[in-house]
Amino acid sequence: MSEAVANRIPASLRAGTFSHGVHPEENKHYTAGKPIQRLAFPPELNLLLSQHAGKPSVPIVHPGQEVVRGEPIARADGFMSVPLHAPATGTIKRIDLVPTAKGPLKPAIILKVHPGESQEILYGAHRDIDAMSPKEIIQGVQDAGLVGLGGAAFPTHVKLSPPPGHKVDTILINGCECEPYLTTDHRLMLEQPEDLVMGTRILMRAMGAERAIIGTEDNKIDAAEAVRRALPADGSITVKVVPTKYPQGAEKMLAKALVNREIPSGGYPSAVGLGVYNVATTAQIGALLPWQRGVIDRVVTVTGPGIDKPGNYLVPIGTPLRFILERLGYHGSARYLITGGPMMGDTVSSLDVPITKGCGGFLVMRPEDIEEQRLPKTYPCIHCGKCVEACPLHLNPCQLGKLAVKRRYLDMDEFFLFDCFECGCCSYVCPAGIPLVQYFRVSKAMNRELKAAGK
Ligand code: SF4
Ligand code: SF4
């Protein structure tokens, strides 16, 4: 934290941090000062039935059916699933296969948007959240189709249902947004602090928690101040500012920094009395639940040196990426795009992939930025130990990397391969240019396959 920034933060708002981690170039300047702006509705929306962890949604509409914005169009298939809602008033065209960010085609409901329609949300009715029981709230969260909007897309109602014996006393709201470039959570905290506080209250009621802490990094002081002004007077919800460091937004790092609790290896936050939720998810809970509405829009940061009009845009779920990029001045190919940030993000298979609930941003690079990195030079490990010093989980990426190269995937269990959450800190600091995190992704898949084959 710089001295100038530190002086602006009252001591009561400051919290500590975790050990290790890295400080990549933040590059938030492209979009941090850009208010959220709605983009035009596209002519067609492609609503993937599987855009969350768990079982795909099951369509409850048929081709030719007219639907209104906000109306349910697919139901949850059991507990580990969520429903889908129509993001626009229009006509169901068909159910078809569409490309996904990772490549394979998957089933989606294709909705033709009515041109000239105001797209006012007519669906839903107000209800008194304070009169609802925790069980009714958790059901309401599932009915709203809520999933982790920070990227994981894990159904939120499942996170609100901890294993028997786990008592949650504290809710942590993750507003760190530590990935370089991305500014969705920053803008949501600035522009929708009331929704965020309402969502936090709802989460506290659902979990029976006595207090909540909204944590953000010290490069978003304006957001921390906006949220602090919206807090209730009873002191049950507080804001804490942590030093800007990657990966501060990871659950384990946030728990350590804000309340000095350690989430056990392979365990849930509820094992140490915590529930951890992302800012965007919480703000949606606050905006949707009191109106019995579902997730139909999301804010997406479109940023990077390759886009003419970088910004934070509100778009309907299912909008084709091509539609967004063309409006913002990008006419290149998918090879210069990264979904998510540069540390944990991934390449995009096609410009025809639709926006999903978990998609918070796209990084658009220029050909010269990508070509520079396309042929990275990799040298043998020089045992400098930088990867060990960087790993926020205190793993030994150097040793894991050596086992991966030797294809000793099962032996990697001894070095806690599955604790690695692929933050990329080790690859980022490695002077030998060894793609450690890519090794670990492949190693996990191979390890699982070998175990499934009984080896
Ligand atoms: S990618 Fe895994 S091994 Fe590397 S620093 Fe992150 S958690 Fe540690
Ligand atoms: S940072 Fe790279 S070169 Fe250094 S010990 Fe780790 S793997 Fe080896």
Specify Rg, calculated over alpha carbons: 22 Å
Bound small molecules, by name, code or SMILES, are:
iron/sulfur cluster
Which CATH class of the largest domain is shown?
Alpha Beta
CATH topology label of the largest domain:
Rossmann fold
Q: How many strands appear in the DSSP assignment?
A: 17
Task: Give the percentage of residues in beta strands.
Answer: 15-25%
Q: What's the architecture of the largest domain, going by CATH?
A: 3-Layer(aba) Sandwich
- Which parts are unreliable, with pLDDT below 50 for 5 consecutive residues or more? none
Q: What is the assigned CATH homologous superfamily of the largest domain?
A: NADH-ubiquinone oxidoreductase 51kDa subunit
Q: In which order are the strands of the major sheet placed?
A: 1-14-13-17-15-16
Instruction: Give the distance, in angstroms, between the N- and C-terminal Cα atoms.
Output: 49 Å
Number of domains: 3
Q: State the helix count.
A: 14
